[in-house]
Description:
By secondary structure, this protein is mostly beta strands. The protein has strands at residues 2-11, 17-22, 27-31, 47-54, 60-67.
Amino acid sequence: MGNGRGVVAEFSNLTGLxxxxxxxxxxxxxxxxxxxxxxxFIDVGTPVGFSVFPAMKGRVEAMKVEKx
Length: 68
């Protein structure tokens, strides 16, 4: 669907769910299994690049989340 850049705005180590504040002003959800280095954890404030794919109910999610 497309690529983007942004900053991790929220991340829960408990659930593995996070939100990226994208450079275009949107908020994109992601799950820890999408962190490209396989670490399953990422710090809030980390700059990232990502790909976007369609999710349920017309939403989008980030995949291939890479720390920049």
